[in-house]
Amino acid sequence: MSWRARSLLATSRLDLPNRQSDGDSLQTEDTTVKNCASDASELPRAVTRTSRRYMPFIALGMALLCMLSACEAEAPAQSVATSSRTARIMPLGDSITESSKGRSSYRYYLWKLALARGYRIDLVGSQHGVARGAPLHSDFDMDHEGHSGWRADEILAQIATWSTQTRPDFVLIHLGHNDLCQGQSVQSTVDELGAIIDTLRGANARVVIFLAQVIASAAPCHSQIPVLNAQLLPLAEAKRLPLSPVVIVDQHSNFDPNAMTHDRVHPNAAGESQMADRWMASLSPFLDGFFGNPLPSSGG
């Protein structure tokens, strides 16, 4: 029997009970079968009637399958929406963050590490590129908040504006070298770093702060770097909040200014790459939490 004939039979069988008595129904069924005899003469009448009897159940089964298929189709869309979050990261500091013409900056290596691990990040800040020219590589997000020559107090004076404009989820602070070389005390620098942390929370109460124990330097004016770095530990402990952790990142240990800088102060490619590795080691657990996995307990 053709599909058209079977459809006619099913329609006739389902509609007739609403309009006719049982006797009229049987008569109409016979008439319909005769009209379709050219298609159905080869099939026994009992088989035809049995098929009609089960058509409502077949239709119900098909409807249920369609509903299940629709539910399965919606699940991937929900997963995509979750994975499309972007983490806004502000690299904050001085020339070590900004870098200079012909160099990569640690930000380049950090960007590549994030991509390799599947993180969707957006580096944010009012600055772009590097100082005094083009960077060695330009295939990365070059926004940042690195300001060559600036001290912590100068950064503090502007950070409210910058953070309000960009609303970072994570901030990488590497500051202190210029303070020590421009007559600022260790204590005043620590106090200003604490005020920077407070100000960042004004733009985002859940911001996660990564505070670097700064890289070693061979410049004489940087002899107090170990003292500064030691004072950052109690600062981080005092400023840590459940919703806004302050995480100490050790950029100082095993940083050799003779082998990892190009001028005894500013990192070369080896130094930049090591800095990126240290940042990422601390960032990764929090990025995992940001993108849906459980957050780690905040640590120093």
Structural summary, described in words:
- The protein is of the alpha/beta class and 300 residues long.
- It has two domains: 3-81, no CATH class; 85-290, SGNH hydrolase (Rossmann fold, 3-Layer(aba) Sandwich).
- The protein is 55% helix and 11% strand.
- It contains twelve helices and seven strands.
- Strands 1, 2, 3, 4, 5, 6 and 7 form a seven-stranded mixed β-sheet that branches.
- Helix 10 links the parallel strand 6 (208-213) and strand 7 (246-250).
- The chain is globular.
- The model is unreliable at 1-48 and 68-82 (pLDDT under 50).
The CATH architecture name of the largest domain reads 3-Layer(aba) Sandwich
The first-level CATH class name of the largest domain? Alpha Beta
Number of strands: 7
H-E string: HHHHEHHEEEHEHHEHEHH
Give the CATH topology of the largest domain: Rossmann fold
Q: List low-confidence stretches.
A: 1-48, 68-82
How big is the Rg? 35 Å
The major pleated sheet works out as:
7 strands, mixed
Quaternary status? single chain
The named CATH superfamily of the largest domain:
SGNH hydrolase
Structural class from helices and strands? alpha/beta
Determine the number of helices (DSSP H or I, runs of at least 4 residues).
12
Report the helical percentage: 40-55%
Strand content: 5-15%
Q: Can you tell me the number of structural domains?
A: 2
Mean pLDDT across residues? 81
- Approximate shape: globular
- Could you give the distance between the termini? 78 Å
